[in-house]
Amino acid sequence: MKTKLMIMSLLLACGTWLAGCEQEGSAERAGETIDQTMEAAGKRLKEAGQAAQEKTENAYEATKKSLEEAGENTQKAAKQVLKNTGEATEKAGEYLKEKAQ
Predict the structure, then answer these.
(1) What is the domain partition of the chain in residue ranges?
(2) Considering the entire predicted model, what is its pTM?
């Protein structure tokens, strides 16, 4: 009889304990909500970081291309200025020779 009573008490205690484990309390629900919110925020931050990285890379490439084009245009302009200056110097030299004779 005593053994049956102990077994019954043990089963009742285990059943109560298991029932308590299955039921979510308000703190556990709040914890799950916080976890879900943090996961969603982390995902949004990661997506924002990837978008910012992509925009930065695009801006870098566009700037690089613009600078390369500006460098090429500057070289062309400098060559033309040198050519024009050389031609003007030759003409001035010829003019001075004519006047000197």
Answers:
(1) 2-100
(2) 0.50
